[in-house]
Specification:
9 helices; Serine Threonine Protein Phosphatase 5, Tetratricopeptide repeat; mainly alpha; 151 residues
């Protein structure tokens, strides 16, 4: 019988991949023998990265999944000092490869002004770009920012 976290992980695997999101902190899903002290980094698993250096190398080889995985490690300080500015660069690189997860994550940082100067206009553009790739959440974000910018 599958555990509840496994169902959520499987059901949202495509979304997690696109957005570069990834952790399930339950003992059932932990790869550490039932300990829930470390998350499963779904994004790194999908990208096939062994560690940050591996993700960075694969990102340089134009693997956008790896760019997003490395970006998440930097954004949230997983195994490295948090560096949202570096995360933004990596997300932007993935976006340059037309990868929805990179564009979306870059938009989130731009909207929040995390690691970069807040730029809601550019964030809206990126959300709209991801919307064109099929993300309804991004369509909603683009519409929301569009209405926020009107007097």
């Amino acid at each position: 019988m599958n555990k509840p976290c496994e169902h959520r992980t499987l059901r949202f695997l495509a979304l997690l991949s696109a957005l570069g999101i990834g952790a399930c902190r339950t003992a059932e899903a932990s790869p550490h023998g039932g300990r829930a002290d470390k998350p499963i980094n779904v994004a790194s698993t999908i990208a096939g990265c062994e560690n940050l250096d591996d993700c960075t190398r694969k990102c340089s080889d134009k693997n956008p999944n790896s760019c997003v995985s490395a970006g998440r490690l930097y954004e949230f300080g997983h195994g490295v000092a948090a560096d949202p500015a570096r995360a933004f660069q990596l997300y932007e690189q993935a976006c340059d490869f037309k990868y929805a997860g990179g564009c979306y994550n870059a938009a989130v940082l731009l909207e929040a002004g995390k690691g970069v100067a807040a730029d809601p206009v550019r964030a809206r553009e990126l959300y709209a770009q991801v919307c064109q790739m099929g993300s309804t959440t991004s369509c909603e974000q683009a519409r929301r920012l569009g209405s926020d910018s009107k007097p």
